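Full entry
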Amino acid sequence: MIETNYDFEDIISKFKIDGKLVYCERYGEGHINVTFLAIVEKSGVQTKYILQKINKNLFKNVEKLMHNIKLVTEFSRQKVIARGGDPDRESLTIVYTKDGNSYYYSQKDDEYFRVYVFITDAIAHQREDRPGQFYQSAVAFGEFADMLSDFDASQLYEILPDFHNTENRFRDFKASFAADRAGRAANVGDEIKFVLDREGYCNKFTSLIKTGEMPLKVTHNDTKLNNVMLDEKTDKPVAVIDLDTVMPGTICYDFGDSIRFGCNTAAEDEKDLSKVKFDIKLFEEYTKGYLSSLGNSITEIEKDNLAFGAILMTYECGIRFLADYLDGDLYFHTAREEHNLDRARTQFKLVTEMENQLDQMKDIVKKIAAAK
């Protein structure tokens, strides 16, 4: 059955797809773009595609967004071909419009649409269903970083400007604290002090990038398990997906965000902080997977800062949650009172645990890197 919100037959007809649309329904659990599984049939043979309505409210310049994705996917596809792989399965593959564009703008709907080749026999898991899947996601993101290590990241636009500019995040936080729009600052003095006491963290990576000491590379910026397609039988990584936030940065951002998300023993919004622990064993597991596939493209300064990247990304995320709480919950969706405050406290608890184990984290990175 085809949903009637849009004329999907007309939309699909704008792309270089041969056949008749026989099915188009909502697909997956993504929250940013609206994703559909489209099935096209020709001569009794059915072919699957991913059709997405791009979130134009978040991505205000779709041309620049798709410019980034086009460059990165075409580059990675050539790398897959060179190593004898299947580019339609091991990389996102854009299906171009009949006009040669990477997306289609529907004037009737005032919406932007794009199409990808469907990656067969693979699953993007929302959570670790079987042991080892977190490790395999690390292998996938390490391969992604290695494959794009010689790509000129300066070609990419900052789709979300200053996304990981922690200096800017800190300035925005101080502005939120000073304005106190929701009248909440008096109740969160400890959390505010936690942020202010760590101001020195904020410029470490931005300074290293500015001086050229830290190489500017392609970063994914959403390195969660559900953005990796794993083989449905073997759990081996197939492809990294969701390239909307691909931008120039440092691989320490991507590594750090994976650790922030994947090594927390509790939910991101857990109210009982006694349940929130940083799992150093999961950190070691992820580091092994990541470095095993990163090859020799990682520099010494990147190795030295992987562990701190976990602290910085967790601290930055906590800043954003706390700033939004002070602003009156304007950015992040909340399901309960003090939801953003709970999220911030969870991140800050993780930061504290990571700080206490930073030397051990660094030793793990050094040991694994030396054993490669």
The longest helix spans residues 300-327.
